Automatic annotation (TrEMBL):
This is YihY/virulence factor BrkB family protein. It is found in: Cell membrane. Keywords: Cell membrane, Membrane, Transmembrane, Transmembrane helix. Its main location: membrane. Coiled coil: none annotated. One of its GO terms (cellular component) is plasma membrane. InterPro entries: Virul_fac_BrkB (IPR017039). The chain crosses the membrane at residues 21-45, 81-102, 122-144, 164-188, 200-221, 233-254.
Length: 268
C-alpha cells in the first residue's frame, strides 16, 4: 500500500477530522494562558512583548493578531497571581490537547494505551513544559543572534546586507525549532517504543505541511475569506479555530506517516 492510500484510508478509520476538532478546541484554550505565562517571564529574560508577537505573527492568519494583541494588552500588568494562573491554565489545557494527540497516534499505530492514567498525564505535562522551554529558547536565541549579527556586520561595514541575511536565518531557525518540537512529540506521545529517528519522516512532513498550509490559509483569509461578514465580531476567533483545526489535521497526518514507515520496516 502506498503512503497516499494509507493516509486516505485512515482519515476516516482513525477519525482524524474529529480528533483534529478536539485539538483545535484545546489549542484555543491553552493559547492565551500560554501567552500570559510567557509574558510573566519577560522581567527575567531578554525578550519583549513584541518579540513574542513576532513569533506568532510569522505564521498566524491576518486578523487574529489583533485579537491576540488586544487580549495581551489587557493582562500586561505584572501580577504574581497571573503567573500561577498562566502555569495552571497552560499545563491543564495543553496536556488535554496532548492527550488527544496521544489518542490519535495510538490509533495510527494500531496500539492501545498501555500507560496508567497518572503516567500518561505526567508524560503530557512533561511534554507541555518541554514545548514551553523550546518556545522560550526560540524567543531568546533570535534576540542574541540579532545583537551578535548586528555587531559583526557593523565591524565589516555590511550593516545593510545584514537585514536580508537575518530575515532568511529567522525563518530557518523558526522552522528548525518547529521540527524539533514535532520530533519530540512524535517520539514520546505514542504508547509504543521506537527509535527517535523513526519520528523524523512525520516531523518533516508536519513541519513543511504546517508552514505551507499556514501561509496558504493566511493568504486566503487576507484576500478571499471574509469571516467578519459571516460571523461579525467573533470572526477573528473563527479564523483562529479554523487555523488550529487545519494544524491539528497536519499533526495527526504526520503520525500516520510515521506509522506507515514503521509498518514497512516491520514488514521487511
Amino acid at each position: 500500500m502506498t503512503l497516499v492510500k494509507h493516509i486516505y484510508r485512515n482519515l476516516m478509520d482513525d477519525d482524524v477530522f474529529g480528533i483534529a476538532a478536539q485539538l483545535s478546541y484545546f489549542f484555543l484554550l491553552s493559547l492565551f494562558p500560554l501567552l500570559i505565562f510567557l509574558m510573566t517571564l519577560f522581567p527575567y529574560i531578554p525578550v519583549t512583548q513584541e518579540d513574542l508577537l513576532n513569533l506568532f505573527r510569522d505564521f498566524a492568519p491576518s486578523g487574529t493578531m489583533e485579537l491576540i494583541e488586544s487580549n495581551l494588552n489587557q493582562v500586561s500588568q505584572k501580577n504574581g497571581a497571573l503567573l500561577s494562573f498562566g502555569i495552571i491554565g497552560t499545563v491543564w489545557s495543553a496536556s488535554n490537547g496532548i492527550n488527544a494527540i496521544v489518542k490519535a497516534f495510538n490509533k495510527a499505530y494500531g496500539v492501545k494505551e498501555g500507560r496508567s492514567f497518572l503516567r500518561a498525564r505526567f508524560m503530557s505535562i512533561i511534554l507541555t513544559f518541554a514545548m514551553i522551554l523550546v518556545i522560550v529558547v526560540a524567543l531568546i536565541l533570535p534576540v542574541f543572534g540579532k545583537h551578535i549579527g548586528t555587531f559583526l556586520f557593523a565591524q565589516l561595514e555590511l550593516s545593510a546586507q545584514f537585514i536580508a541575511v537575518w530575515n532568511a536565518l529567522r525563518w530557518l531557525v523558526s522552522s528548525i525549532i518547529i521540527f524539533v518540537i514535532f520530533i519530540g512529540l512524535y517520539w514520546l506521545a505514542p504508547s509504543k517504543k521506537f527509535a527517535c529517528r523513526s519520528a523524523i519522516p512525520g516531523a518533516a512532513f508536519a513541519t513543511i505541511g504546517w508552514i505551507l498550509t499556514s501561509f496558504a490559509f493566511s493568504y486566503y483569509v487576507s484576500n478571499f475569506g471574509n469571516y467578519s461578514a459571516t460571523y461579525g465580531s467573533i470572526g477573528a476567533i473563527i479564523v483562529l479555530m479554523v487555523w488550529f483545526y487545519i494544524s491539528g489535521i497536519i499533526i495527526i497526518i504526520g503520525g500516520e506517516v510515521n506509522a506507515f514507515f514503521s509498518n514497512r520496516v516491520k514488514d521487511c
